Amino acid sequence: MGLGSTASVIGTEKSLVIVWDTGVLEGDKPVLSRQTLKVDSTITAQEAYEAAYNIASLTDYTISNLYLVTEETLSPID
Length: 78
What we know:
Elements: E1 8-26, E2 29-39, H1 45-56, E3 62-75
């Protein structure tokens, strides 16, 4: 195994990261808060986007940024 071996994806996980604008300023910079939610590995970007805005409708914060992060577990590992 190791260098020269063929890598295989043995697992995929996705997380939705929502960066909230709290409406608070420190000096002239907004205070942001980051929330990470594990989501189903089959979620699409559109579904993640809609989920984030559905969650936002339940808060007083506004969305500053959204990220859909995909992590793949590779094998073989020596």
